[in-house]
TrEMBL record:
GO biological process assignments: phospholipid biosynthetic process
Pfam families for the chain: CDP-OH_P_transf (PF01066)
Upper classification of the organism: Bacteria, Bacillati, Actinomycetota, Actinomycetes, Streptosporangiales
Signal peptide location: none
Classification via PROSITE patterns: CDP_ALCOHOL_P_TRANSF
Listed name of the protein: CDP-alcohol phosphatidyltransferase
Chain segments annotated as transmembrane: 308-324, 336-355, 375-403, 477-496, 502-522
Annotated organism of origin: Planobispora siamensis
GO terms for cellular component: membrane
């Protein structure tokens, strides 16, 4: 479980015009029990950290008394930063840092804290004005021609002083630090792996010594991310997507935002999140379109993921028994049963993610019995071929089994090697340097160095081709994932015979194995 740090003293966007109301004074009358903003947040965080650290200015600290956890009173921005440094130095678990006036969905907090990134921040990209033709009214200056700037634009009350790329924060600014072409704001929650806690502590202490350089509009969380990025930490990004997050500063905003929040379907977002985003073509279009609703139905009736796995196993064994008859009705029944065995194979993981019920046993059962179902069906097809007079196809069955076994071994070993590989750090530059020009120069040098070589060029070209929908799905299908394999068994097995089924599995599986192995060798050598 993460260690939670609530920032009750973030300077925020309204510090220049006067302090906002503390979240303990802001009520949410539209919610049952009319909770305060901070009371609701404490309730949401109780399962993560029942005793969070709250950092608040002395003049507003009284509003936070009576809530669980430790209250740290400060007098200024430098004190805020040093208090964060103290919390980071004492951290023995991951950190979740967020403003105390956050109005947020439970599911969004869950998704952020379950991220495998070493650091992850919630951002919002600045919207761009377009003309009637859909072109930007103010076109972007090419990044290599743009000059660093102290952003004076605001979005949702926060200064646009962050440069975000596709997957991570590139640069963060302040009233002192200039950013090249800023395009986003840091909204709130920052999740940090404990291994980066010492770096955060060092950065926060250095920023505290520079506090006199910052303006009233500089947000405390923005400054923390600035310190991390300047020290080379790769801070990943995510947007709100179909979930809600806003900072509440006045009672009028509290009433407005809670109404806006009610318009979001959090359960639907949670259900959609239960479906893997990187599934294959067959799974995406012929299973996940409805399997999520089976998962929700099962979860609401108390079925566990392991129980759903057992249903999938039973259907797989029944499918093998039907294939073993060798008769056409049995083959058709086997095809139908193996399809639904795969459906429930997807459902068990979706139940786990929707109900948040994870376990080592469940993960082991799912991975092990995926192979078991596949191989027992191979045996059923081979027996059915012998019974029906198609002939001896055991050799083909063993070849198909061998190809899949080798592929699973390669997938596991390559995945394990990649998990041990940390994300590429950003070039670090001192906090005392105002513009991020050295960072841009270092990134450009890295880009030039990485663009060299035939293998890198081919990989880059193939990666760019993936933006075309047809190429994207063709790449998904060619590797012959489990959904496509079960689809081949179901369709070819039902309408043809075991020999053609195994030949299809061998040919497609062989092509997929060569494609995967080639790609992994190229990525390893690049």
């Amino acid at each position: 479980m993460p260690r939670v740090v609530l920032l009750g003293s973030s300077p925020g966007h309204d510090a220049a015009s006067g302090p906002s109301a503390p979240p303990a004074a802001l009520t949410l009358p539209a919610l049952p029990g009319c909770p305060t903003v901070i009371g609701k947040l404490h309730g949401q965080l109780a399962s993560l950290d029942p005793a969070p650290v709250t950092i608040a200015r002395a003049e507003t600290a009284t509003a936070y008394r009576g809530f669980p956890g430790t209250l740290v009173e400060t007098s200024d921005l430098a004190g805020d930063l040093r208090a964060v440094a103290d919390a980071a130095e004492r951290a023995t678990e991951n950190l979740l840092i967020l403003p105390a006036n956050s109005l947020v969905h439970d599911e969004l907090l869950y998704q952020i804290t379950k991220s495998k990134r070493g650091a992850l921040a919630l951002i919002a990209k600045e919207p761009r004005e377009e003309d009637e033709n859909g072109d930007f009214i103010v076109p972007d200056v090419p990044i290599d021609e743009a000059e660093p700037e102290i952003g004076d634009r605001f979005f949702e009350g926060l200064p646009v002083r962050t440069r975000a790329a596709k997957s991570r924060v590139i640069s963060v600014g302040s009233a002192y630090h200039a950013v090249t072409r800023p395009n986003a704001v840091l909204l709130g929650p920052l999740h940090l792996n404990v291994r980066h806690a010492p770096t955060l502590a060092e950065a926060a202490r250095e920023l505290a010594d520079m506090a006199h350089l910052f303006g009233p509009e500089d947000d405390l969380l923005q400054l923390l991310v600035l310190g991390l990025v300047r020290r080379g930490v790769s801070v990943g990004i995510r947007g709100r997507r179909d979930l809600f997050y806003r900072r509440v500063t006045t009672q009028a905003e509290a009433e407005q935002f809670v109404t806006e929040m009610a318009a979001f379907d959090e359960d639907r977002a949670r259900l959609n999140n239960a479906v893997k985003g990187a599934d294959g073509f067959f799974t995406t279009f012929f299973v996940s379109t409805y399997s999520r609703f089976i998962a929700r139905w099962a979860a609401r009736r108390g079925l566990t993921p392991n129980q759903v796995t057992l249903i999938s196993i039973a259907l797989g064994v029944a499918s093998a028994a039907c294939f073993a008859t060798g008769e056409r009705p049995g083959m058709v029944a086997g095809g139908i049963l193996i399809y639904f065995a795969f459906v429930f194979d997807c459902v068990d993981g979706q139940v786990a993610r929707y109900a948040r019920k994870f376990g080592v046993l469940g993960a082991w059962l799912d991975a092990t019995f995926d192979r078991f179902k596949e191989y027992v069906v191979f045996a059923g097809l081979a027996v059915g071929a012998a019974v029906s007079g198609v002939g001896d196809v055991w050799t083909l069955a063993l070849i198909a089994l061998g190809i899949q076994s080798i592929r699973h071994l390669l997938d596991f070993s390559f995945g394990a090697a990649n998990r041990r590989k940390p994300p590429s750090p950003l070039p670090g530059i001192p906090l005392t340097i105002s513009p991020d020009t050295p960072l841009r120069a270092a990134l450009e040098e890295r880009k030039v160095a990485r663009n060299g070589g035939t293998i890198r060029s081919l990989l880059k070209m193939w990666s760019k081709a993936g933006k075309y929908r047809a190429v994207h799905w063709a790449r998904k299908m060619i590797v012959f994932p489990i959904g496509e394999r079960f689809a081949v068994i179901a369709i070819v097995g039902a309408f043809f015979d075991a020999r053609i089924t195994f030949l299809t599995l061998i040919i497609w599986g062989g092509i997929g194995a060569v494609y995967s192995l080639t790609g992994r060798l190229m990525r390893s050598l690049a």
